[in-house]
């Protein structure tokens, strides 16, 4: 039995004993906290979609494009606050930043159930966007600060999967409330979900206060030994740039990473807009499906998203490369969008369900491409922090207005122009995958990217200003640069 347990531990956390002990503790503290927060984020955002089609629209007098305006207000503030948020994590202790944001986010969600006009929900969504902006990009930044390139994709996938579970649970919870709590204590079902989500957030915030380990350099994780804290720093290596100075903006603005990774992530987000904005639910409504079915069936998208995200992320970690799975994702963009473009709205329900569920697997870039970004920016702390925030900010700079043009509620159920736009944006990801791969290989060979791993051998002290050479995983090894 012990032998079997050891084999499982080695498969999950690697053969290195010190690394395995460290990863075990991180995987039961750091990873669960961010996963739970992202789960609650998914529940919260799904609750607005579910509430809208389950009574909130009529109760709060939503008219025309008010639903789109609600999402747009949220996304605008969310996008603006992401780069400042990730940059703040390099200055302040992440524990304080995350817990304060979690508590405020919970209070705003609770207030939503007391609203009686659409404009109030729109305003609260905008404010909530500022405090929830750190949830995704901040987690990605912290995870990349603790996990190696060959570990990060899988952990990022686990984190993202909890968000998909949250989105699924949001629909299930609302569907259950429609039959169990509707009218209880004088409250309609759509109001109960905001109360429940708010209450759920508080214990998670407390968990974070206890277990968030900040950054490795802070050495504040009480559940790690001093040796493990040292190992956490050494095993990732040293970044070539670690401080805020006068060169930061030049380093960031002249880097290819700052432009290409946000660009490809933006194209991905625009492509999958048919999976957002209640597109599937509104199409189902036009086909005569019940309200409960409209809440339940779209959750299948999140189920396929979970499978695709885990599969692609694990494969990319195992082969220590992101471009191969990125090509597969890009091809899926094209196939799924082409089906929606080619099939008439009023025919072939099976084709529509297949296309929606197939495209669900393309949520994988949330883990794979953020891990790819961390791989190619690990040499520069400020570049990584700013690019992490900018990836989502640049993304939402387009997502805020894109649905108003290509997926407005008033077009339901015929979103032909939106499906065509998704086909085009999905296809454009393929040449970008090739360009990023080429630049990564070029700069890895040159020793420009990748962390520097100290070598304890006597030879390592004889180099003077020599950059580390990359290993098979694209990480720099064997010498310590005098620039550091």
UniProtKB/TrEMBL annotation:
Keywords: Membrane, Transmembrane, Transmembrane helix, Transport. The chain crosses the membrane at residues 30-48, 68-89, 96-113, 119-144, 156-177, 189-212, 258-276, 296-315, 327-345, 351-373, 385-407, 419-439. GO terms for biological process: pantothenate import across plasma membrane. Gene3D superfamilies: MFS general substrate transporter like domains (1.20.1250.20). Residues 30-444 form the Major facilitator superfamily (MFS) profile domain. It is a multi-pass membrane protein. GO terms for cellular component: plasma membrane. It is found in: Membrane. InterPro entries: MFS (IPR011701), MFS_dom (IPR020846), MFS_trans_sf (IPR036259). The keyword Transmembrane helix applies. The keyword Membrane applies. Signal peptide: none annotated. It comes from the Eukaryota. This is Major facilitator superfamily (MFS) profile domain-containing protein. It comes from Talaromyces atroroseus.
């Amino acid at each position: 039995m012990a032998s079997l347990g050891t084999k499982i531990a080695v498969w999950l956390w690697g053969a290195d004993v010190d690394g395995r002990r460290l990863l075990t503790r991180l995987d039961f503290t750091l990873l669960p906290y961010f996963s739970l927060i992202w789960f609650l984020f998914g529940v919260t955002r799904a609750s607005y979609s579910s509430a809208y089609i389950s009574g909130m629209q009529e109760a709060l007098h939503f008219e025309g494009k008010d639903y789109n305006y609600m999402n747009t207000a949220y996304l605008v503030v969310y996008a603006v606050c992401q780069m400042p948020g990730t940059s703040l994590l390099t200055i302040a202790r992440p524990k304080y930043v995350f817990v304060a944001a979690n508590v405020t986010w919970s209070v705003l969600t609770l207030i939503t159930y007391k609203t009686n006009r659409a404009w109030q929900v729109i305003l609260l969504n905008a404010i909530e966007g500022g405090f929830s902006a750190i949830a995704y990009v901040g987690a990605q930044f912290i995870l990349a600060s603790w996990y190696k390139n060959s570990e990060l994709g899988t952990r990022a996938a686990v984190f993202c999967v909890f968000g998909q579970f949250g989105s699924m649970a949001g629909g299930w919870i609302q569907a259950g409330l429609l039959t169990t709590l509707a009218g209880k204590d004088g409250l309609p079902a759509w109001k109960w979900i905001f109360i429940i989500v708010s209450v759920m957030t508080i214990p998670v915030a407390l968990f974070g206060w206890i277990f968030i380990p900040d950054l490795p350099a802070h050495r504040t994780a009480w559940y790690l030994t001093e040796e493990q804290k040292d190992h956490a720093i050494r095993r990732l290596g040293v970044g070539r740039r670690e401080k805020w100075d006068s060169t930061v903006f030049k380093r960031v603005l002249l880097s290819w990473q700052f432009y290409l990774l946000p660009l490809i992530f933006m194209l991905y987000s625009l492509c999958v807009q048919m999976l957002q904005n209640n597109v599937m639910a509104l199409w189902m409504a036009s086909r005569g499906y019940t309200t409960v079915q409209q809440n339940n069936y779209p959750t299948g998208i999140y189920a396929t998203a979970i499978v695709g995200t885990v599969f692609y992320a694990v494969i990319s970690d195992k082969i220590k490369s992101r471009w191969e799975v990125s090509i597969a994702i890009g091809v899926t963009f094209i196939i799924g969008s082409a089906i929606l473009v080619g099939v008439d709205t009023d025919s072939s329900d099976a084709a529509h369900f297949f296309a929606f569920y197939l495209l669900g697997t393309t949520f994988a870039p949330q883990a794979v491409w953020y891990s790819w970004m961390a791989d190619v920016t690990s040499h520069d702390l400020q570049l990584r922090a700013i690019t992490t925030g900018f990836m989502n900010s640049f993304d939402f700079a387009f997502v805020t207005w894109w649905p108003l043009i290509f997926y407005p509620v008033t077009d339901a159920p015929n979103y032909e122009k939106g499906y065509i736009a998704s086909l085009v944006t999905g296809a454009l990801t393929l040449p970008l995958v090739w360009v990023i791969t080429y630049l990564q290989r070029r700069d890895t060979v040159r020793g420009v990217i990748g962390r520097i791993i100290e070598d304890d051998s006597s030879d390592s002290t004889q180099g003077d200003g020599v950059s580390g050479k990359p290993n098979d995983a694209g990480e720099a090894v064997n010498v310590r640069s005098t620039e550091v």
